[in-house]
Each structure stands twice: as C-alpha cells, then as structure tokens.
C-alpha cells in the first residue's frame, strides 16, 4: 500500500512558511525547531523537508542525501542542546511516533530530541 501524505499537516505548513516556528537549525533537506508544547527543558523536532509520513516511509523512500542530511542535523541539535554525553552533557532521548499505536499526532515524519531532565522509563509497561 502506498504512503498517503497530507500536505495540509502543520509541519507542511511550517515548511511552506504559512505558520511560524522557532527554528534551531536548518540544512538543505531538513529543519529543526522547538516543540510548541515541550515535554522537557530541551525539546526540539527535526523534520525532513520532503513529504514523508513517518519513520519507515522516510527510511524506505528518502534519498541517501536526505537521510544523511537529516541525521547530521539531528546530531547538531544534540550539540545545540549541550546534551552529548561525550562532551560532558547529561544525555537525551530521541523518539519517533508512528501511527495510532505510536501516538503520532502530526503526519509528517519528525524526530523528537528531548533533554534537560531525567526522562524516566522508556515506555509505560
Ligand atoms: P507526535 O505526537 O509525535 O506527532 O508529535 C507532534 C508534536 O508536534 C507534539 O509534541 C506537538 O507539541 C508538536 N507541535 C504541534 N504543532 C506544532 C507547531 N506549530 N510548532 C511546533 N511544534 C508543534
């Protein structure tokens, strides 16, 4: 079954400049911005500029250039948050929700990067 991308989703509208965002970093194929309702002192979303619905869509259909660009920007966000354990930071968590069981609200692939406090257990049992 093909992936159906809804170009009216809020992140598509951010990418078109129709609604504002608090940009952290931008690259050729990706954008990082502060989550509007942060769950931690540091809560940044990284999104590809291309029309990908979720993690598996991005992994399977994005170009190698898009995939590398996305992850390089995500690494730069970890540095921006001063969260890299190798640099004396206290660490962070990345999360990507997909579909109903994942609790995905916005149907444009995004990686949450959370930092700034202990983040508790991975998921509820
Ligand atoms: P998810 O549940 O993984 O789809 O997460 C969607 C995230 O997008 C939530 O953490 C929201 O707070 C965030 N969000 C929704 N609208 C905006 C917006 N306009 N700017 C920044 N973050 C947003």
Search tags:
125 residues, alpha+beta, HIT family, subunit A, 5-stranded antiparallel beta sheet, 27% helix, 20% strand, binds adenosine monophosphate
Helix-strand topology string: HEEEHHEHE
Q: How does the major sheet shape up?
A: 5 strands, antiparallel
At the fourth CATH level, what is the homologous superfamily? HIT-like
Bound molecule types = adenosine monophosphate
Q: Given the C-alpha coordinates, what overall shape results?
A: globular
Write the CATH architecture name. 2-Layer Sandwich
Number of DSSP strands? 5
- Stretches with pLDDT under 50, minimum 5 residues: none
Count of alpha/pi helices = 4
Tell me the helix content: 25-40%
Number of domains: 1
- Average per-residue pLDDT, rounded, comes to 97
Strand content: 15-25%
Q: What's the helix and strand layout?
A:
Layout: H1 10-15, E1 23-26, E2 30-34, E3 42-48, H2 55-61, H3 64-80, E4 92-95, H4 99-102, E5 111-115
The protein binds adenosine monophosphate.
Residues 10, 19, 21, 35-37, 45, 97, 103-106 line the site of adenosine monophosphate.
Overall description:
The longest helix is centred in the middle third of the chain and has 17 residues. 27% of the residues lie in helices and 20% in strands. The protein has a five-stranded antiparallel beta sheet, covered by helices on one side. The chain is of the alpha+beta class and 125 residues long. The chain is globular. The protein is built from four helices and five strands; from the N terminus they run αβββααβαβ. It has one domain: HIT family, subunit A, CATH 3.30.428.10. The model has no long low-confidence stretch (mean pLDDT 97). The structure holds adenosine monophosphate (AMP). Adenosine monophosphate binds next to loops.
């Amino acid at each position: 079954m093909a992936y159906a991308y809804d170009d009216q989703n809020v992140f598509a509208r951010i990418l078109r400049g129709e609604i504002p965002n608090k940009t952290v970093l931008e690259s050729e194929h990706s954008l990082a911005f502060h989550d509007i309702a942060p769950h931690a002192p540091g809560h940044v979303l990284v999104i590809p500029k291309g029309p990908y619905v979720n993690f598996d869509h991005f992994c399977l259909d994005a170009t190698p250039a898009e995939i590398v660009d996305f992850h390089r920007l995500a690494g730069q966000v970890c540095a921006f948050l001063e969260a890299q354990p190798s640099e004396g930071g206290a660490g962070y968590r990345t999360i990507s929700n997909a579909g109903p069981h994942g609790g995905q609200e916005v149907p444009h692939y995004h990686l949450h990067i959370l930092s700034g406090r202990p983040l508790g257990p991975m998921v509820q049992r």
